[in-house]
Every structure is written in C-alpha cells, then in structure tokens.
Amino acid sequence: MRLLSWLSESVDERPGAVQINDRGVSWVELRRLAAAVADDLHGLDRVAVEASTDLATVVGVAGALLAGTAVVPVPPDAGPRERDHILRDSGAEAVLVPTPGQRRGDYPDRPLIPVDLTRRADSSRPEPDPADTALILYTSGTTGAPKGVVLSRRAIAACLDGLADAWGWTPDDLLVHGLPLFHVHGLVLGALGPLRLGSRLHHVGRPTPERYAGAAGSLYFGVPTIWSRIAAAPAAARALRSARLLVSGSAALPTAVGTGLATLTGRRVVQRYGMTETLITVSAHADGPHRPDAVGLPLPGVRTRLVDDDGAPLPAGGETMGELQVRGPTLFDGYLHRPEADAASRTSDGWFRTGDVATIGPDGWHRIVGRAATDLIKSGGYRIGAGEVEDALLAHPGVREAAVVGIPDSDLGQQVTAYVVSDGVAESELIDFVARQLSVHKRPRQVRRVDALPRNALGKVQKSRLPE
Predict the structure, then answer these.
(1) Would you kindly state where each structural domain of the chain is located, as residue ranges?
(2) Closest by alpha carbon to 61, among 26, 53, 69?
(3) Is 283 within 8 Å of 306 (Cβ atoms)?
(4) C-beta neighbour count of 133 within 10 angstroms
(5) Residue 421 pairs with which residues in a beta bridge?
(6) How far, in Å, CA of 404 to CA of 393, rounded?
(7) Shortest CA distance to 322 belongs to which of 350, 352, 359?
(8) How far apart are the C-alpha atoms of 451 and 365, rounded to whole Å?
(9) Maximum C-alpha span of the chain
C-alpha cells in the first residue's frame, strides 16, 4: 500500500477535502498540485520544507513523499542558528518555500524551490521502498543541539493504521485542528493521517475556541493548552457536542480540564502517548473505556515494559513507577549522524528508552507520570510524580496553571516546588490544599507565583526554564 494511499488513489473532485485556514482543495486537485512539486524534486534525496501553517506546506510535503524525497520540516519561526543547524545537519539539498512574498525564512546557502499553487501535473511514479526515510524531524534540543530523528515510511504507516484502528478513523470523518505542521502531532497525525486514511481535513490556523467551534468536525485534535481554553469558553465547548471524538496529546491533560470538557461537550477526551522517536505507541480507544489519568493501551504490534533505575523489569501492578521502554513497528531508525546517542537510547536487547516514567496496570492501561529528569521527584525517600501534584493544585479555584519540579535539597534530596499562575492565593493555602488531597509528603514545600509558564510551540511546559 502507498504511504499516502488515499491521496494517490482518490478520484473525488469535490472542493474542500483539505482546507488550511481559508484555502481548500479537492483530493484530485491536491494530488495534481503535489505531483507538480514531485516533478521539481526529481533526483533529490532530501529537501527541507518551510513548515508554515498554509496549504503550500501540505502540498510541498505531499509532493516530496510522492517523489520519494525525505522531508526535513523547518519551523517558520526558527532563528538563524537553529535553521542553519537543521539544514547543515540534515544535508538538505534544497528548500521548498511558499511563493515569494509569503516566505518567512532566509536560506542563503540552499537552492529554493517555490511551491507554486498555480501549477498542476498528472505525472506518477513508483511507490518508494517502505524502509526509505520519509521524515527527519528535529527534537527540541533541550540537551544540546537538536537531533535529527529519522522516520521511515513504514513506521509512519504503522502509526497511522494503528490509530485508525483505535479511533475508528475513516473517510467519513472531518478532522479539525490548529497544530503546527512541523511536529508529529500536527504533521504526521494531523496532515499525513488524512492523506493516508481519507478523512477530510480542516486546519483552522490559530487554534482559538471560536475557530474550533465553527469548524463542525467529527474528530478534533488538540493539546492541553487548546483544550483548557475551550473548557473556559462554554459556548465554544458546547458546539463540539456533535463531534464523535476529541483527542488530546503532546502533554498530560489536567483532570479538571478533561472533566470540564466532558460536562460541556458530552464527550470524554481520548488521550494518547508517543514521542518523536516512537510516534504514537499507546492510546485509549474510541469505543472503549476512558480514564482521565491514563493514556490507554499499546497500539497493534507495540510492546511496552517498565524498568527500575538499574534496568531490571518491574511488575505491571498499577502502582509501581518505572521508566517506560517500548519496541515495535513505529520506532524511528536512529538519530542522524549520532551513533553515540543511538547507543544510549536503546538497551542491549533492543528496547527504546523513552526517559518517561509510567505505571502499567494489570489490565494493561498506561499512566504517564512524566519525564524521568523533571517529573519524577525523589524526596525524603519517596518517589513523587509531578503530574499528580499539578492536578491537585489545578483543582484549587484560584490556580489557572501549575508546574511542579524537584529542586535539589540537602536534607530531602529534592524538594517539591510548585510554580503557579494564580489569583493571588497565599502560598500556605496552596500547600495545605494539596496536603489535604494527597499524602502529606507530596505537598509542595514551596510555591512560587509567576505571570506565565514557559511553553514551546505545542504548549508543553519547559520545566528546565522554570528556575529562571
């Protein structure tokens, strides 16, 4: 089967199959636009794409994949240093850009190939080998320069087919989202998913509650920041009652937000788990139980396990926290030019070390505690998950946002410290509030008020910046 099987085979000429902001095209028109780009890329091994939120990005990525050319997305707001690193490290031979006047980046050392939305072609070419590279996605660079994650066509297909099975995702769906087109969530799931599975796509541009509400979709993707804003806009939330599925990912959805959305929309939000290196590996099912504090079950072919600090297997009893390790068909092929990072990321028996702390219940349901480096706090001999304390803080009516970290402490090892965006609630009140909901040892020892939490493009809190 072709990677973009629906796009490659559809004869549907009805307008609006794929709409990005206010510009839409039919499946046939999109294929012809992409074929023109593919013709321009003949003989190129890999090409960078200025991944703005526009139709040109989807056309460019689709054209490159039809041509068998690996795609290197470049965030449109990348600074010169980040952009130069991505281009040089990836070895991109050219850059696909929107037509002049729409470009955002500066690429002095690479040929530019404009994605001309007035050009169409009817050419076709053989499907590349499933083992060939489809995408090289760059990590956030929190531990040094961003690393290129090499993803095969086979891995992307396995991920999307697994999600189609879990979510009942079909051509009858209209997918709505407003996610960036240079990450797994917005690009692989949110753009390539429809091109493979056939659902229509409406990318709303800036993801406001009003734009989500006005899109009349059956399937919605969002990150917790988006869902939090929708939950705070009751009229917009109620407009989603006609949707069959709401999906949240990229970070843990606060329990209070999920509960609020369920009340307003009549829909439980499905959560899923994955990384750039693994794509999506675990998810709740559309027709199965939903648990507000858990992300579900492994997708077909995916295996998971928990290990302790020494790498020894841990029981799946639902209480024991350990590092989550995964293996299966959705995993990446390696870090580009980083053999030492590859070796460090995998165990001797072939499992990928996610660096995330989780629990697995006897029924196989997974709960993600957070990153081992920032979200597992070892304080006074206890192992404390930051997410549980954050949820407790967010249950206070005066707290709008919360992030919890462990700060080095000479007595406790680490001190539970909270950063909150709040309405002037006293520190002592919040400490006592948490202590009444959770075990006393999980209470914050210190609460610091901030005007805003530092976040990346997907709304994830950047905890390494909190002490600043």
Answers:
(1) 5-187, 376-465
(2) 69
(3) no
(4) 22
(5) 401
(6) 9
(7) 359
(8) 36
(9) 70
Amino acid at 426: A
Which one-letter amino acid corresponds to residue 202?
A: H
Burial bucket for residue 436 (CB in 10 Å: 0-12, 13-18, 19+)? exposed
Question: Residue written as tokens 């969530």?
Answer: 185
Residues forming beta bridges with residue 419, ordered by sequence position: 403, 448
Q: Could you tell me the pTM of the whole model?
A: 0.86
Distance CA 365, CA 363 (A): 6
136: its two tokens: 């090289």
Closest CA to 219 of 255, 166, 263: 166
Lookup: tokens for 59: 């056309």
* Rounded CA separation 300/163 (Å): 9
- Tell me whether residue 145 is exposed, middle or buried, using C-beta atoms within 10 angstroms of its C-beta: 0 to 12, 13 to 18, 19 or more: middle
Q: What residue has token string 């901030």? A: 450
CA-closest candidate to residue 224, choices 455, 20, 449: 455
Q: How far apart are CA 280 and CA 188, in angstroms?
A: 10
Looking at domain 5-187, does it have CATH number 3.40.50.12780?
yes
CATH homologous superfamily of domain 376-465? Answer: ANL, C-terminal domain (3.30.300.30)
Cα–Cα separations (whole angstroms), residue 34 to 49, 55, 56, 175, 293: 13, 11, 9, 21, 41
- CA 83, CA 76: separation in Å to the nearest integer? 9
Structural tokens at position 269: 């939000």
Residue 162 CB partners (closer than 8 Å, separation 6+): 280, 283, 299, 300, 301, 302, 330
**pLDDT per position in the chain (468 positions), as tens?**
899 999 999 999 999 999 999 899 999 999 999 999 999 998 999 999 999 999 999 999 999 999 999 999 998 888 788 889 899 999 999 999 987 655 556 788 889 999 999 999 999 999 999 999 999 999 865 556 789 999 999 999 999 999 999 999 999 999 999 999 999 999 999 999 999 999 999 999 999 999 999 999 999 999 988 998 999 999 999 999 999 999 998 878 888 889 999 999 999 999 999 999 999 999 999 998 888 889 999 999 999 999 998 899 998 888 888 999 999 999 999 999 999 999 999 999 999 999 999 999 999 999 998 777 777 787 876 778 788 788 889 989 999 989 998 888 877 878 999 999 998 899 999 999 998 888 788 899 999 999 999 887 777 788 888 866
